[in-house]
Amino acid sequence: MFEKILIANRGEIAIRVMRACRELDIKSVAIYSDADTTSLYTNYADESYPLGNPSPAKSYLNIEKIINIALESGADAIHPGYGFLAENPKFGEECEKNGIKLIGPSGKVINQMGDKITSKALMKKAGVPVIEGTPEGITDLDEAKEIARQIGYPVIIKASAGGGGIGMRAVYEEDELVRAIESTQSVASTNFGDSTVFIEKYLEKPRHIEFQLLADEHGNVIHVADRECSIQRRHQKLLEESPSPIMTEELRAKMGESAVKAAEFIGYSSAGTVEFLYDNGKYYFLEMNTRIQVEHPITEIVTNTDLIKEQIKIANGDELNYVQNDIQVTGHAIECRINAEDPLNDFAPNPGKITGYRSPGGPGVRLDSGVYMNYTIPTFYDSMISKLITYGRNRNDAINRMRRALSEYIILGVKTTIPFHKAIMRNPNFISGDLNTHFIDQYKKGIE
Ligand SMILES: Nc1ncc2cc(-c3cccc4ccccc34)c(N3CC[C@@H](N)C3)nc2n1
Ligand SMILES: [Ca+2]
User: Fold this and answer.
1) Is 154 buried (19+), middle (13-18) or exposed (0-12) by CB count in 10 A?
2) H-run or E-run covering 264
3) ipTM value of the model?
4) Statement: the pTM of the whole predicted model exceeds 0.90
């Protein structure tokens, strides 16, 4: 087993990985920029090393600096967390060159899943349902018109190298098509250096349901059940829950089987997530995320698993500890992302000094927090400061506990999304489980 793991990340996920290391008796190494000298996570590691300049490019995205610290500290593995270098193929190559194990899937798989046209083509071959559309990028506008006519409007134009919803444009009638293609191509080339775009049937009010995967390096793959992630704002998830309110045993078996087939077909290893769109009884492959995700705790709670420890064991070459039958869903869990943002000012980031802080607790509450009383939230990084998770025997229990925990969670000195989540927990459509990806737009007024 590894002796020492470097966590190439910061905040709550760094603490989460350090906790898994400690439980496995593995030493942990923290890295911190000048803006993170007082951050909580550095206290949980056995040793910590400075990165210097706080800009992401010069710190948490600086492959050379991070590899050098790993070599200097004698770390034999690196956990990338999520964001930053977590899905960067170059990072995997550099780690391999330096004899350091990067905890995650192979660079080849990260590359393949990073391209939407490639990933869709692979999924189709694997027998996973994909959304009707062009198998290749658009090269000829007349051909595109013909294809859009065959698919039937509305259609959506998507950038193949896209992510996080950037480079996506819904088109409701033919005379908008050309302009939509050209604008998406230019957005794609500016943002991703690749202007390849393709067309799909546009699903107007789908749900976003994703399946957690665990795959070892010996070809064993299982799914670890589903998460509902439809409550998003500008492609930023705000709240997630497991299981999905619409999940049944047979639908879970069917979608789970598709997710496992996808992973087996591409030779996936480590933890990963297959995202689906669900639209009145049918589901379609959307994307595959080749990293551990922010919302992994709700899965850990309802399936009684530790996904980070499993990732570390898989990277160590161990066989999976579970067979599919070991995965049973018990109860219900909800995660609210607590961001230092102002919900009444378009969720603009609101960093600053925390002048008052009291954590929630009690039955059915888990708080994965990266902050503390008197901590000054830096301006350089993501605005998520903690994740409040509640769970109970059923969804109603979990909602009641979330209402209570949100009322106990005191953060003064900065604005946060706590009031927003309190409103969601009182929103009739959320309570009824009537969710889709337009939830926020549909009910924004009721939430502000
Ligand atoms: N053919 C078709 N129809 C509807 C879609 C709707 C979305 C979408 C759009 C806006 C918010 C979403 C939230 C969760 C899941 C999907 C969405 C979508 N994407 C793709 C990138 C992902 N982050 C959002 N692709 C879609 N594709
Ligand atoms: Ca994704």
Assistant:
1) middle
2) helix 249-266
3) 0.95
4) yes
Q: What is the pLDDT of residues 266-299, one digit of tens each?
A: 999 999 999 999 998 999 999 999 999 999 999 9
DSSP notation for 172-230: -SGGGHHHHHHHHHHHHHHHHS---EEEEEPPSS-EEEEEEEEE-TTS-EEEEEEEEEE
C-beta 10 within 6 A of ligand 1: no
- Asked if 201 contacts 142 with a C-beta cutoff of 8 angstroms, the reply is no
Torsion of CA 104, 123, 228, 155, to 10 degrees: 130
Q: Are 343 and 394 in contact (CB under 8 A)?
A: no
Which residue of 87, 160, 191, 208 sits with most ligand 1 atoms within 8 Å of its CB, as the best mutation to test the pocket?
208
Does the beta carbon of 435 lie inside 6 Å of ligand 1? no
Catalytic residue among 207, 227, 252, 291: 291
Point out the ligand 1 atom lying closest to the alpha carbon of residue 201: 1
Pocket flag, ligand 1, residue 116 (CB < 6 Å):
no
